[in-house]
Design brief:
- The protein has 115 residues and is mainly beta.
- Helices cover 0% and strands 57% of the residues.
- It contains no helices and eleven strands.
- Strands 2, 4, 5, 6, 9, 10 and 11 form a seven-stranded mixed beta sheet that branches. Strands 1-3-8-7 form a four-stranded antiparallel beta sheet, with no helix packed on it.
- The radius of gyration is 13 Å and the shape is globular.
- The termini are far apart.
Length: 115
């Protein structure tokens, strides 16, 4: 059994920064890929950023240059540093971990960016 616990998001003003974290706990041998997804009202869930076990990274075009994903393998934790936030970044952000051929999901945290 594996659980993903996300930090609390929050309300921030456009242009400011926010960091999210997600810690995996439970019966963990190794985590292949960790990532962040988001879902805005009325829109489908989309990939924001993903990081592999050897720290290869991919980002959605909409966040490139502004967001940075990182992981701490010793803590089974993934982070999302969000800089220069825009109102269109407003969404529920979900943590994801892929291991042992199975996807695990966090419960989501609300990030709201005011203009």
């Amino acid at each position: 059994q594996v659980q993903l616990v996300e930090s609390v998001g929050g309300l921030v003003q456009a242009g400011r920064s926010l960091r999210l974290s997600c810690a995996a706990s439970g019966s963990i041998f190794s985590i292949n890929t960790m990532g962040w997804y988001r879902q805005a009202p009325g829109k489908q869930r989309e990939l924001v950023a993903v990081i592999s076990s050897d720290s290869r990274k991919n980002y959605a075009d909409s966040v490139k240059g502004r967001f940075t994903i990182a992981r701490d393998n010793a803590k089974n934790t993934v982070y999302l540093q969000m800089n220069s936030l825009k109102p269109e970044d407003t969404a529920v952000y979900y943590c994801n971990a892929y291991m042992e051929n199975y996807n695990y999901w966090g419960q989501g945290t609300q990030v709201t960016v005011s203009s």
